[in-house]
Structure formats: structure tokens, C-alpha cells
Write a structure and sequence with these properties.
The protein is α+β, with helices and mostly antiparallel strands. It has two domains: 69 residues, no CATH class; 77 residues. A four-stranded antiparallel β-sheet has the order 2-1-3-4. Helix 1 runs parallel beside helix 3 and helix 6 packs across helix 7.
């Protein structure tokens, strides 16, 4: 008779084998869910061993790079969670970091939304949206610095047409008049 631990291990091994064909956010999420659902250190160790033992080197590299990308994106995760009402303590617990780390990220960085508009371009007459996004920037970084950076990466649109960047605090684009910074420039070609 096999033990519950062996059954759990065999199930996890089967799920893992099925997921080896692609490292995707879904497979990483399933791996994280399985690890999180483990009720003992022994089961967690079995999961970690099964993953480390069975995956090819290039897959392990992809997983490590994905984990590093998540780590680099942690300030953004913290700001979005805060905007959705999560407390620093709840965020810290979920990310397995300290409350002081979460508070430091909130203090030392800020989340902004931005949009590039083009004037009289192939997008249409007058000001038309060209590209939009969100950025987490150091608290010492000015909106003007961000606008210059965004426009420099905006491709041919801002270089060929009159353009503007609008920047808002937070994760949501808001009405133009609520922008904390607006920068306009002539074509740079």
C-alpha cells in the first residue's frame, strides 16, 4: 500500500511531466500552486526534487529567468496590490518578504500610467492615442525624465509627427486634464 505522500508525489510528478513541453505563465503558476498547496516540508522537498531532477538545463534556465523577471517586477506588483486595497502586511505575507520591504518599495518607487498621442497622423486628425503603458519609476525620477524616455522608445510615430506624452499617478489612465505631466514635441526626424 502506498502512502499518501507517495500518491501526492506521483500525482505531482505526472503533472510536472505533462507541463515540461512548455514553460509558460500557466505552467509556472501550476508549479507555484502545487508548492504552495504542499502541507509539509517533506512534500515541498519532494516537489522541488522532482522539478530539479526532471527538467532539462535550458528549462531550468527559463524558470530562473522568469523568477528573476518577477523579482524585478515586484515593485509594480506591490503598487498594483496596494491600489487594489491590499495592506503592506498582506502583500509581504503573499510575497514572502518583510513588511518593511513592501513599505520601502512603496516609498522609493511610484506607479504611473502614460500615453503617447500623435497629432494629425495615420491614426487620424487631431490628437489620437498611439501607445499607452504603465511604469514603476524611482521616486526621484521626474515625470519629465519619464516623458523623454517614453518618447525616445515610441518608434517612428513620435519621430514623424507632433506628439505628446500624458502621465498620471497610479495604474489607470485618467482624463487628460488629470494628468500630472504633459509634454509635447515636434517631429524629431
Amino acid at each position: 500500500m502506498t502512502s499518501a505522500l507517495e500518491n501526492t508525489f506521483n500525482e505531482l510528478e505526472a503533472k510536472h511531466a505533462a507541463s515540461l513541453s512548455a514553460v509558460t505563465p500557466g505552467t509556472l503558476s501550476r508549479l507555484a500552486d502545487d508548492y504552495d498547496a504542499a502541507t509539509t516540508d517533506e512534500v515541498r522537498a519532494a516537489i522541488a526534487f522532482a522539478v530539479a531532477e526532471d527538467i532539462p538545463l535550458e528549462t531550468a534556465g527559463k524558470i530562473r529567468r522568469a523568477a528573476k523577471a518577477i523579482e524585478l517586477g515586484t515593485p509594480g506588483l506591490i503598487h498594483r496590490a496596494t491600489a487594489n486595497g491590499a495592506t503592506p502586511s498582506a502583500i509581504a505575507k503573499e510575497l514572502s518578504v518583510t513588511d518593511s520591504y513592501v513599505r520601502r518599495m512603496i516609498r522609493e518607487t511610484r506607479q504611473v500610467s502614460w500615453r503617447i498621442d500623435l497629432f494629425d497622423s495615420e491614426a487620424g486628425r487631431g490628437w489620437q492615442a498611439w501607445e499607452a503603458g504603465e511604469s514603476v519609476i524611482p521616486a526621484t525620477y521626474t515625470a519629465a525624465d519619464l516623458a523623454e524616455h517614453v518618447l525616445s522608445r515610441g518608434g517612428r510615430g513620435p519621430s514623424e509627427h507632433r506628439s505628446r506624452v500624458l502621465i498620471w499617478n497610479g495604474t489607470d489612465e485618467q482624463p487628460n486634464r488629470a494628468a500630472i505631466y504633459t509634454h509635447e514635441q515636434d517631429p524629431t526626424y
